[in-house]
Amino acid sequence: MTGSGKLIYVVGPSGAGKDALLDHARAHLPPNVKVKFARRWITRPADAGGEAHRSLTMPEFEEKVRSGAFAMHWRAHGNGYGIDAEIRDWLRDGATVVVSGSREHLHQARKDFPDLHVIEVKVDAGVLRERLLRRGRETAEQIDERLARASRYALPSGVPVIEVRNDRRLEDGEADMLAAILRIARG
Question: Which of 109, 132, 171, 181 has the most Cβ atoms closer than 10 angstroms to its Cβ?
Answer without folding.
Answer: 181
